[in-house]
């Protein structure tokens, strides 16, 4: 399989896109650490799903906005599994995607931005940094950051969320430049509206239909679509790909 | 290049008028099919006759030429090799990778650079680095500082035993011999018997009479009688090769005969913290890797142990990891030559040793190609020195100060040769002095370890001067003969 003997850590993996990625990586042979914040039951259910299909997974809670918590989690995983080869930075701070009731620009505070930046950029940075010595020693590491296609075309202008995800994209590129020398690849996946997930539940039919109407493939993105891209970027198939952002949105975004 | 039946290659060259009685062939299996190498099945009597023929041609032609004329001829020959369409260059580019197993692109690139060392202006530099006025003292008696005159004489016949580790390496000593006006019998190795033959054929294109003082042919080192016969008839012997080859030949050369040996040598690289800044470290790693990659460290010039100074923006361990990635990338660009079983064994043994060292010492790290033996970096936190089994395999040591490195390599003085450096300009002279003291004879820029300059002193010796003997006309003789000038009153 594509990811035999690899250990993958997926943050925010108890549901939605994160859960689909965890399952996708496990299906290809990776041992998956299902990281979650508080949804213990859902995380365990994902682990159960994976093991039921013959995969290997464990659930580990950690608030990835905390540097100390990250260090503790990474130390624990490295002690138990010896290595982490793949890191998927999927978690982000709670955010309601509600086109009708979104926060307007004038109402968006710095605290809103900070919360989103802490949830995605800061978490990605500290997680990657915590893994860096191990990555350098093993001369191998795959970092996959989940951003959004809204950074290219903010169909719904979620200011704080989009700004934080844009920062992740810049971070992805500059990290890729420096870490390539150690055999580390850093890429991003920019999903379009992914349905159904908890986060997209409040994106109502009118918006969904409007997006579908513009989408070359004529449908919304499914969590499994993102998982497919993640498997690809995590595998040897993507060995010479770094600093890239793969848009998985049915062709809605073309660069 | 005479090629018969498509894949038969003549790997010998002799004066036009000289014919051997019997020829034989050796079949070389290559990825592109078998190649048959044709060469004389020479007898000791033929070697004697060859030696005499060469000496006589040398006396009537080469010895009459000025060094300047010889330089011009060799320069014209080298110039032909700068043309990508030149027939013999194309033959070399096709067959050398097949014969040696080296990467074809790399061989082409290296040959290109190498052959340019022998252009006229480079040769002038080369000669002048040892003998003033383009070696005029080899042409005529020249006034010397003690009031008399001196002239330099080269051997009438040089017997050269070539190594086959690096394509074209033989041409260097071949040209040295021509510059001192010697006829040459060159015994090639079957590992690379082609380049010197091609070059002599080029010389023949430019000046057939000059090429006629040269004979190149391979024979097995088991054919001791042939070797001894050649030694007996030569004035000077140059042997290049492994420690074993050089020692074996030494035993055949009588004390009255001059023997110049180019044997097993070791290179090291020293990387200062100044070359490990955020803007330089990648470049530094790539340069080092090209020193390791060119001809798979088979040239005596390549590094076997590398010293990395602590205190840079990257730790020596991190730098080893960057080096490892760069080695992996290098393999994508220029693949390693096919390894012989003994070479594989040596690398596997080194990897096993490294693994057991890692059990006892957590600071030791090994970076290596996962699926094969194409490259290996063993990182040690405590400095020492170890020779490498070559083929892109290297020991990396962390050191607190580069100034300490001479202590670690001093015990290997007889074998030390090149040091590739990436250091601060202020540190260069002091470090050079210390490295010279412990036996290093060549200091060069990191990334250039495999590329010698035209005026280098091979293993610390003189290229031309070591081949020459000097004849002096003392001042008193000059004055004395003046007495017999009948016109003087």
Automatic annotation (TrEMBL), chain A:
InterPro entries: NAD(P)-bd_dom_sf (IPR036291), SDR (IPR050259), SDR_fam (IPR002347). Pfam families: adh_short_C2. GO terms for molecular function: oxidoreductase activity. The keyword NAD does not apply. The lineage of its organism: Bacteria, Bacillati, Bacillota, Bacilli, Lactobacillales. Belongs to the short-chain dehydrogenases/reductases (SDR) family. This is SDR family oxidoreductase. Keywords: Oxidoreductase. PANTHER family: 3-OXOACYL-(ACYL-CARRIER-PROTEIN) REDUCTASE, 3-OXOACYL-[ACYL-CARRIER-PROTEIN] REDUCTASE FABG. It comes from Leuconostoc holzapfelii. Transmembrane segments: none annotated. Coiled coil: none annotated.
Automatic annotation (TrEMBL), chain B:
Signal peptide: none annotated. Belongs to the LuxC family. The lineage of its organism: Bacteria, Bacillati, Bacillota, Bacilli, Lactobacillales. It is an enzyme of class 1 (oxidoreductase). It comes from Leuconostoc holzapfelii. One of its GO terms (biological process) is bioluminescence. This is Acyl-CoA reductase. It holds the Pfam family LuxC. Keywords: NADP, Oxidoreductase. It catalyses: a long-chain fatty aldehyde + NADP(+) + CoA = a long-chain fatty acyl-CoA + NADPH + H(+). The keyword Transferase does not apply. InterPro entries: CoA_reduct_LuxC. Its EC number is 1.2.1.50. The keyword Glycosyltransferase does not apply. GO terms for molecular function: acyl-CoA dehydrogenase activity; long-chain-fatty-acyl-CoA reductase activity.
